């Protein structure tokens, strides 16, 4: 819904009204359905394992990462990202380690920062899985924004992760860039969420 109505939310003259419209829709559902007296939910058979530190800067200890990585506050923003110092990666490399706590095979995706229009201020990246498969992470934002200057996160599906499996994903920049690669979230879900763009504007500062 947010994807379809992006202009209604992104346009500064309509933004406040857009939030009110969403609030009204949620209230209408609650008024129609009500709130159950018993709010306890039994354990699910599928356990999502998602981490997002964009707003808090706090990464759950279950997500591991290499010694050359650190959480930074992005300059001139109130947002956070995980950055790698690739020059200090050494033989150990630059990686994150993800664990699938579900007993089912799940989809694995990550979120990272991008800018638009092209050329991006971020580098094109290579993400390598234990199987040897390599995924190219494009640094440009959604082309639907046209020539608007945006600084937003984008997600990429990396593949599947087996039940109760722990894997490392290695990262390597494929080009020099003005700003360093910035990772913002990891998602282990039954199905990869769509669309693949986070529509929240961060701004155009570095």
Walk me through this protein's architecture:
The chain has 206 residues and is mainly beta. It has two domains: 1-42, no CATH class; 46-189, Jelly Rolls (Sandwich). Helix content is 12%, strand content 33%. It is built from two helices and eleven strands, in the order ααβββββββββββ. Strands 1, 3, 4, 6, 9 and 11 form a six-stranded antiparallel beta sheet that branches. A five-stranded antiparallel beta sheet has the order 2-5-10-7-8, with no helix packed on it. A hairpin with a 5-residue loop joins β7 and β8 (134-137).
- CATH class of the largest domain reads Mainly Beta
Mean pLDDT: 85
Alpha-carbon Rg, integer? 19 Å
Distinct helical segment count: 2
Helix and strand run = HHEEEEEEEEEEE
Major β-sheet annotation: 6 strands, antiparallel
Count of domain modules: 2
Question: How much helical structure, as a percent, in the residues?
Answer: 10-25%
Percent in strands: 25-35%
Outline type: globular
In short:
With 206 residues, the chain is mostly beta strands. It is built from 2 helices and 11 strands.
Q: Helices and strands in order, then pairings?
A:
Layout: H1 6-10, H2 15-33, E1 49-52, E2 64-65, E3 69-73, E4 80-84, E5 95-99, E6 106-116, E7 125-128, E8 134-137, E9 150-161, E10 166-173, E11 182-189
Antiparallel strand pairs: 1-11, 2-5, 3-4, 4-11, 5-10, 6-9, 6-11, 7-8, 7-10
């Amino acid at each position: 819904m947010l994807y379809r109505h992006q202009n209604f939310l992104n346009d500064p003259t309509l933004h406040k009204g857009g939030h009110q419209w969403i609030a009204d829709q949620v209230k209408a559902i609650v008024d129609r359905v009500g709130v159950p007296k018993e709010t306890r939910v039994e354990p699910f058979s599928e356990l999502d394992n998602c981490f997002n530190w964009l707003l808090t800067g706090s990464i759950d200890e279950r997500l591991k990462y290499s010694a050359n990585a650190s959480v930074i506050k992005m300059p001139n923003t109130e947002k956070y990202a995980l950055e790698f110092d690739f020059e200090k990666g050494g033989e150990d490399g630059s990686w994150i380690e993800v664990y699938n706590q579900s007993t089912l095979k799940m989809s694995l995706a990550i979120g990272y920062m991008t800018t638009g229009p092209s050329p991006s201020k971020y580098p094109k990246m290579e993400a390598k899985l234990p199987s040897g498969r390599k995924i190219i992470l494009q640094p440009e934002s959604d082309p639907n924004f046209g020539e608007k200057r945006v600084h937003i996160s984008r997600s990429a599906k990396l593949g599947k992760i087996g039940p109760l499996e722990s894997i490392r994903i290695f990262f390597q920049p494929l080009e020099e860039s003005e700003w360093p690669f910035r990772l913002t979230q990891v998602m282990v879900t039954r199905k990869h969420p769509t669309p693949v763009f986070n529509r929240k504007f961060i701004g155009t500062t570095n």
